[in-house]
Amino acid sequence: GRRVLQQVQYSHNVQLMSTSDYFETIKIEETKQDVGPVVAVFEGDVTCPDGSVLAPGEAFDKVWKLRNGGPNKWPIGAVLSCVGGDKMQAPESVLIPSVLPGKSIDVSLRMIAPLKPGRYTGYWRLSTPDGNRFGQRLWVDINVMEPEEPATSAVETKEVCFEAPAAAAMAAESVAPTPSSHDEEDVWINELQVLADMGFTDKMRNVTLLTQHNGDMEGVITGLLSST
């Protein structure tokens, strides 16, 4: 009866303590070595490694791989419980199967990323049914970030697409050599042939007028007629 009373009193005290006080108490306790025969070894993060980026409110499964590194199987009724930090809407504790010595197990918790962007870390420990913790402290460490707006990136891409040809054209104009008269004849070769068929055979004169009028045949012919 006395032990039950002490347990109730301890639970009551824990509820009265602030989160920071509770967390400090846990940190001090964790400096003590586990002396029991129950041993758990952390083997790795199966999902959601440290620093994983998640969207606000995104649901995810955190999975740790643990191994029974001791001589005895884990007791029936062992639990994994949150001992500090951000619980991220996970249950306070989950039951862990009785794992045989040397065997490994994947322990999974369904969590939901907080809505506010930032870095969040939650700490978890295994414990026996009578409350003795064993194994290393486990944690989940995530970065919550707003996803980039796809519309914004599309607009930026369009702007680049529109600007690139214009820039290329300007660059081409700035480095393009001044065409020679022979090049100009090639440019207006069709127009020159038409003018020649009409009896205007002065190529230099025709090229000059074609260049002035930017290929407008009506203007060129008017110019030729007025100069004769």
From TrEMBL:
GO terms for molecular function: translation elongation factor activity; zinc ion binding. Residues 181-227 form the UBA domain. InterPro entries: Ig-like_fold, Nbr1_FW, UBA, UBA-like_sf. Keywords: Cytoplasmic vesicle, Elongation factor, Metal-binding, Protein biosynthesis, Zinc, Zinc-finger. Its main location: cytoplasm. PANTHER family: OVARIAN CARCINOMA ANTIGEN CA125-RELATED, PROTEIN ILRUN. This is Ubiquitin-associated/translation elongation factor EF1B. It comes from Plasmopara viticola (Downy mildew of grapevine).
